């Protein structure tokens, strides 16, 4: 009897089984396991339930696969969410060892003590929600190093000190510091948070200076963009809506006429409104169609007229002041060989020279004439200019083929110092150079609507000390 080889489907099934078995054997990273055990105990979770042998299976703990230094896959804790758990402990400094942590949400508990400075070691943190607890003390100044932070909620606590930690949050979208004990003034650097959509400073009675209030819309708009709103405005609006909705049915029920007497009038009024709306829509549609037709006709007429007259332009000097120089013949003297030799030079630059001359037949009108000079470059100058740009070898080690995209990724990475030339390092201006590069990244965003205007740029540049 002949030997029959195994079917390909059986081999594929065996391979998939081994792959699933390997994935199931992925364990939690040892440093994360040790840090979580400390955090678990000091938050007070131990008093409510015993920790599982695999923390990733615990409620509120989320893990993801990551490639470790020895090229093996391990599980890393990425989110810790314990909302309304009646926790009475404190946040341990061991949280800084969770290098892949993206979200830390502990709202509606009874946690005490200070916010540990080690929180700034969580470089990938995007959401920090500690609202409605009993935290106290000052917020670490280094909190602004969390460049990926999108949501920061420290409301309803006992935090004190100034707001100097609000320095650089390019990705921050939501900021709530309400009902604390903060002092000082709201920093102007908040204007540089381009993605900020909501903030709330209410309930801090020790804050000085102008704080945006929706009840004073005029003064608010002059200091803060319209996208900045307060939670107080939402509460006031909801209150007015509730009052009006509660009073509306009462008044309507008190004065509502009987249906039998108003049925005929309501039917006639409805038909009349339909006819009126139809007339209005027809008029608007006709006006729009007429405007478009007129515009298209005028464009076609101008194109036809230009084609009849000839699309080619005469060679000669270009006139940049048609209101002053009516005809090109007035500049015929420039076509002579010595046309500019007798004129007065009033300026020189890298692109040419500017001359002063009197316009013929204009009763003394003076004009400025610019002669553009582009000197030829030899091979040495071109090679020297090309050296200033990154070479092909540079882009062999990057994932981007664009210098702007490479700069953006470096500035949002954990080591933005890579963007600075090593020759400029060690002179004490690293922070200022990084700030300038961040402003440049804002000014080169793909969406022009997201780019800062000149006023915002001046505000951001004012933070540079040197």
Automatic annotation (TrEMBL):
Gene Ontology terms for molecular function: protein serine/threonine kinase activity
InterPro entries in the record: Kinase-like_dom_sf (IPR011009), Leu-rich_rpt (IPR001611), LRR_dom_sf (IPR032675)
Main enzyme class: transferase
SUPFAM superfamilies per the UniProt record, alphabetical: L domain-like, Protein kinase-like (PK-like)
UniProt entry tagged with the keyword Transferase: yes
Glycoprotein recorded as keyword: yes
Membrane topology: Single-pass type I membrane protein
UniProt region (Disordered), positions on chain: 240-273
Keyword terms: Cell membrane, Glycoprotein, Kinase, Leucine-rich repeat, Membrane, Receptor, Repeat, Serine/threonine-protein kinase, Signal, Transferase, Transmembrane, Transmembrane helix
Transmembrane segment boundaries: 279-305
Any Pfam family the entry gives: LRR_1
Composition bias, Low complexity: 244-261
Enzyme Commission identifier(s): 2.7.11.1
A single Gene Ontology CC term: plasma membrane
Signal peptide boundaries: 1-24
Subcellular location: Cell membrane
Highest taxon of the lineage: Eukaryota
PANTHER family from the UniProt entry: LEUCINE-RICH REPEAT RECEPTOR-LIKE PROTEIN KINASE FAMILY PROTEIN-RELATED, OS11G0197000 PROTEIN
UniProt name for this protein: non-specific serine/threonine protein kinase
